[in-house]
Amino acid sequence: MVVYSFYIFDRHAECIYKKKWAPRPTSNGSKSQQSNGLPDGASQPKALSAEDDAKLIFGTVFSLRNMVSKLGGEDDRFISYRTGHYKLHYYETPTSLKFVMVTDTKTNNLRIVLHQIYVSLYVEFVVKNPLSPIEHPGGIGVNCEMFELGVEQFVVCLFRVAFLVD
């Protein structure tokens, strides 16, 4: 199993924490390709900035969550979705914090894992920290070294991934 990235969004749709371990795979299945792997006449796509990537992830989660609630009713919840290249796992807390983890497609449901990150790490090191702000206005993120170390150790122990430098 490979963990690509992990995000936390607050109730105001701001990304308050993001961590990337490995880049997500990209598709290159075109038949007519140049030596750089792109179709003839195509330019090199720009890599998304970390902020744009977080906005794209939140927009996807927001849209899918709303679609599931409208189609399925009150009892149905959005948990995850899978593409040909990655799987996105989602957990929302009672205080409307959204925990999102992007993994490879072979990974089983991680809702319990995201709940454990919330209960064991976020609540213990961020919520109970008197120096940590209650709200994160303007995208000021979680700035707690113990939380960051805890997330890294938790993911390494659980998935045995090799960390890549951001």
Structure description:
The protein is an alpha+beta fold and 166 residues long. It has three helices and five strands; from the N terminus they run ββαβββαα. It has a five-stranded antiparallel sheet, with helices on both faces. A hairpin with a 5-residue loop joins β1 and β2 (15-20). α2 (111-127) packs antiparallel against α3. The longest helix is centred in the middle third of the chain and has 23 residues, at 50-72.
Query: How many beta-strand elements?
Result: 5
Distance between the termini: 19 Å
Radius of gyration (CA) equals 17 Å
- Count of DSSP helices? 3
Strand-residue fraction?
15-25%
Largest sheet, in brief, is: 5 strands, antiparallel
User: In order across it, which strands form the biggest sheet?
Assistant: 2-1-5-4-3
- The shape is globular
Helical content band:
25-40%
Averaging pLDDT over every residue, what do you get? 79
Q: Which key features would you list for this structure?
A:
disordered C terminus, single chain, five-stranded antiparallel sheet, 166 residues, alpha+beta
The gist of it:
By secondary structure, this protein is an alpha+beta fold. It contains 3 helices and 5 strands, in the order ββαβββαα.
